[in-house]
Design goal:
Blueprint lengths: L1 H10 L3 H26 L1 H10 L10 H4 L5 H9 L3 H5 L1 E5 L2 E5 L2 H11 L8 H30 L4
Antiparallel strand pairs: 1-2
């Protein structure tokens, strides 16, 4: 752990290195969040499509869709502010809510959450490529700045 901290300290010793490390951390967080949302919340959309819940009379409850125990799906549908709650229709049946995916929002839902699951190798490959790009930038950026400074006339 001490070696990692020393390496991180040397990377962030310059302002440009710190900027690159912060951009890497932000891109990594965005990739993880996107993958999580696609897996957790997208499972509800994929379940509605596969069960044929495309009209109000075909609406299904979360347990029938197989996502009843997914607290993230329940929270996304309960808040009525998120994208998922705007894409799906909601109807009350026997004191519980049932959900369906209208044809008008089916294309948008499929485009956002995908018709099939995300490749599990996509996130680790993205992390590796982001790390390689960050390391390359940290090593090359100071040299590029020096080259630009040498090209520009000094006063």
């Amino acid at each position: 752990m001490n070696g990692i901290l020393k390496a991180l300290s040397s990377l962030t010793s310059s302002g440009a290195g710190l900027l690159v490390v912060c951009l890497f951390a932000g891109a990594l967080a965005a990739a993880c969040a996107s993958s999580f949302v696609n897996a957790a919340v997208g499972s509800a959309v994929r379940a509605m499509i596969s069960h044929g819940a495309n009209a109000e009379e075909k609406a299904l409850g979360l347990d029938e869709l197989g996502v009843g125990k997914n607290i993230f799906v329940r929270a996304a549908l309960k808040r009525r502010r998120g994208l998922l709650s705007h894409l799906v229709g909601r109807v009350e049946r026997d004191g519980s809510a049932a959900y369906w995916l209208p044809e008008s929002s089916r294309e948008k839902a499929e485009a956002i959450y995908g018709g099939k699951k995300q490749n599990p190798l996509l996130l680790p490959i993205s992390v590796i490529l982001l790390a390689v790009a960050a390391i390359a930038l940290v090593r090359l950026l100071p040299k590029l700045i020096e080259m630009l400074a040498a090209l520009l006339p000094s006063k």
